[in-house]
């Protein structure tokens, strides 16, 4: 059995976060709590614990030096007890996580952890589902080999498909865990790990079920399965973490950085000028080759007439075509491109008065003619400021997630992991 442990530090990142979060809560309570809470913080003053605070609270005279000394000594003792209690809570949380993981282990399995949080076979099976078909199809395309008992384990050029799948799953797991820890740190979620993921899935499905029962609009599926919810949840944690950073002022880009980004990406901030088109279509019956040939012939006759000086709408009408006008803006162009990508490609370079080449798309031949084209406009800095800030925050999120993943401590028992992956691939 081969087991290796990646260590980037001397502490457990998850327990460290739990301890830090409890300490932050304790400090915040001390700032607005009683004199006893202040004493528990070691006798130091926080917030309004000076003269003005005593006046507001009606606390009377100041304590003598001897009284303060006694209070400080008692505060230090209570502070030590509180710190020990916080540590005990963190250790207990870790013990609970390990106990949960143990329920998923068979005899001979070794614990697998990422960021101090247990990884279970169901979690690896879920992640493997995103890459299994890709890995298998790449091999089939290269070798044409069909599935067999040794399909995943047989080495080809010194590497098996299981090696590739394991590498991809580990990379996806570590990055996903890093992002969930960022969300935990930002207060977006209360716990990271697979069990917490399942609870969020259950809560989301219950919420959608209630909304449907109340006659409310439900966007997306009425119920998620694990795979579809994984991507939805990851996107939600990402946006929630970035929003929390923005609200807290953490990682918020400054004016100088925003302007530098604007100068570097100026070419991206151009508003495409509106384009007005005449659009003639010559439809045919799907599967009827005679109908198709007649439609193509009509389109060519209309094109020849336009090139000879005729108006497109008149030329198209004479041979049975239908003509309409289309206004292409930055937004509408994207919509048209989804349905008529070839037509939009033909329209891209048309100058006013020019007809385009005939294109065949969606059961018809299309002929376009440009009526007018407005000049593109460079968007000023103020109009794209928010977009720049969002882009920089997104970039910062990517960097932090990668940093978190790079320094994450991972306990990866290869024998256990490979057995789980093989079981999920059958």
User: Rg to the nearest angstrom?
Assistant: 32 Å
Give a quick account of the main beta sheet: strands, pairing sense, barrel closure. Answer: 4 strands, antiparallel
Characterize the overall form. Answer: extended
Give a count of the beta strands, DSSP E runs of length 2 or more. Answer: 12
Q: Strand portion, in percent? A: 5-15%
**Class computed from helices, strands and strand pairing:** alpha+beta
Main β-sheet, spatial strand arrangement: 1-12-2-3
Order of helices and strands: EHHHHEEHEEHHHHEEHHEHHEEEHEH
**Total domain modules:** 3
**Level of helix content?**
55-70%
Average per-residue pLDDT, rounded, comes to 78
What is the quaternary state of this protein?
A: single chain
Distance between the termini: 23 Å
Q: Please count the helical segments.
A: 15
**Spans where pLDDT lies below 50 across 5 or more residues:** 1-68, 85-103
Structure, explained:
It is a single chain. With 426 residues, the chain is α+β, with helices and mostly antiparallel strands. The protein has 3 domains: 3-103, no CATH class; 117-256 and 390-425, no CATH class; 270-378, Chitinase A, domain 3 (Roll), CATH 3.10.50.40. Helices cover 59% and strands 12% of the residues. It has 15 helices and 12 strands. The strands form 4 sheets. It has a 4-stranded antiparallel β-sheet with strand order 1-12-2-3. Strand 4 and strand 5 form a beta hairpin. Helix 9 packs across helix 14 (381-406). The longest helix has 38 residues, at 65-102. Mean pLDDT is 78; it is low at 1-68 and 85-103. The chain crosses the membrane at residues 80-102. This is PpiC domain-containing protein. Keywords: Membrane, Transmembrane, Transmembrane helix. One of its GO terms (molecular function) is peptidyl-prolyl cis-trans isomerase activity. It holds the Pfam family Rotamase_2.
């Amino acid at each position: 059995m081969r087991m290796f442990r990646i260590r980037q530090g001397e502490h457990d990142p998850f327990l460290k976060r739990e301890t830090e979060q409890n300490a932050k809560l304790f400090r915040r309570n001390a700032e607005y709590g009683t004199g006893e809470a202040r004493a528990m913080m070691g006798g130091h003053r926080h917030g309004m614990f000076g003269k003005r605070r005593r006046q507001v609270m009606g606390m009377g005279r100041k304590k003598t030096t001897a009284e303060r000394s006694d209070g400080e000594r008692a505060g230090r003792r209570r502070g030590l007890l509180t710190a020990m209690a916080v540590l005990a809570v963190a250790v207990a949380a870790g013990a609970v996580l390990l106990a949960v993981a143990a329920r998923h282990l068979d005899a001979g399995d070794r614990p697998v952890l990422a960021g101090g949080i247990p990884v279970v076979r169901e979690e690896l099976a879920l992640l493997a589902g995103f890459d299994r078909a890709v890995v298998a199809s790449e091999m089939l395309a290269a070798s044409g080999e069909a599935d067999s008992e040794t399909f995943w384990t047989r080495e080809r050029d010194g590497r098996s498909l299981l090696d590739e799948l394991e590498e991809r799953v580990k990379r996806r797991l570590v990055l996903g865990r890093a992002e969930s820890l960022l969300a935990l740190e930002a207060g977006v979620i209360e716990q990271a790990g697979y069990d917490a993921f399942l609870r969020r899935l259950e809560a989301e499905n219950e919420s959608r079920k209630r909304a449907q029962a109340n006659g409310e609009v439900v966007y997306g599926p009425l119920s998620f399965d694990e795979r579809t919810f994984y991507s939805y949840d990851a996107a939600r944690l990402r946006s929630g973490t970035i929003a929390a950073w923005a609200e807290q002022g953490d990682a918020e880009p400054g004016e100088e950085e925003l302007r530098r980004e604007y100068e570097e990406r100026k070419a991206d901030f151009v508003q495409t000028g509106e384009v007005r088109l005449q659009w003639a279509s010559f439809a045919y019956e799907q599967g009827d080759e005679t109908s198709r040939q007649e439609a193509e012939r009509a389109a060519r006759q209309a094109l020849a007439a336009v090139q000879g000086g005729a108006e497109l709408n008149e030329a198209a009408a004479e041979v049975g075509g239908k003509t309409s006008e289309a206004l292409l803006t930055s937004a509408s162009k994207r919509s048209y491109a989804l349905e008529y990508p070839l037509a939009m490609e033909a329209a891209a370079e048309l100058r006013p008065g020019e007809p385009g080449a005939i294109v065949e798309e969606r059961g018809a031949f299309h002929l376009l003619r440009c009526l007018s084209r407005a000049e593109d406009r460079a968007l000023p800095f103020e109009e794209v400021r928010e977009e720049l800030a969002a882009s920089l925050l997104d970039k910062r999120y990517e960097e932090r997630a990668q940093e978190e993943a790079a320094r994450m401590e991972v306990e990866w028992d290869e024998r256990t992991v490979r057995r789980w992956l093989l079981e999920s691939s059958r």
